[in-house]
Amino acid sequence: MISVKVKILLLIGLWLMNSSAIVVERPALNARDAFHSFVESFYDCVKAENISFGALQNGLKGYHYLRKNSKLKKKRYLTIVDFSLPSNLDRLFVIDLEENKVVHRSLVAHGINSGDIDATAFSNEHDSHKSSLGFYITGRVYRGKHAESIKLYGIERNFNSNAYNRGVVVHRADYATEEFLNTNNGVLGRSYGCPAVPAKHYKELTQLLRDGSCFYIYHPNKYYKRNSKILNSPQGFNNFLEYYNS
Fold first, then answer.
1. d(CA 187, CA 181)
2. Which candidate, 152, 137, 109, 126, places its Cα nearest to that of 214?
3. What is the pTM of this model?
4. Quick one: pLDDT band at residue 129, thresholds 50, 70, 90?
5. How far is the C-alpha of 149 from the C-alpha of 151, rounded, in Å?
6. Number of domains in the chain
7. Lowest-confidence range among 1-5, 24-28, 62-66, 88-92?
8. Which domain, by its residues, includes 163?
9. Where does the chain have alpha helices with state H?
10. Residue 171: which CATH number?
11. CA-CA distance, 157 to 225, in Å (whole number)?
């Protein structure tokens, strides 16, 4: 099977040979088209995992924005929490961007004031007990009240920039398990805003996420989509094209 990267390199090569004038005059448009073609091919590789197309598309755009514009120390992995899905389904996905596949998936809880089985309300405010949308960079693993937890640095002002001071971290929780679902009428427990995950395979997850990887919490929220500077910047498209054409 031809790889996603090879497909997009062939596509870019055809554009460069046949449409050089257009590339010079409208580079942003070509970058956008190349990116969307890439996402469609990439989605074919991971759609069996049940991640939504919108989550993957936004996550990849933000990843490429941050890859060059921020201090991503660990560039191999992109983690997407897909809050378009209900809490009784796996909705945390760690994607290996070198192998083009999901290497970890699990349940993940949302904030207690974000909703019941579906997360529908989000906040950047202290004591809101809601989840916060947007892009984060992961920090170190530390031992706190939830045992080993992963620091999260929210990098989108007005959406998740208070996450660190709110104590929003990735941690394990007994209420974020299949066992809890089975005893709670199919509804996962909820956190105070943290993306809480099962204890099973947690150590492996921390090794993938920790120390400078891209972590994205997605929801098809119209206000976030209109106002996220990362999603609305053409830089994600341009960085993508530069990376795959290098």
1. 5
2. 137
3. 0.90
4. very high
5. 7
6. 1
7. 24-28
8. 4-244
9. 4-18, 20-25, 27-46, 53-69, 163-166, 178-183, 202-209, 222-227, 235-244
10. 2.40.440.10
11. 14
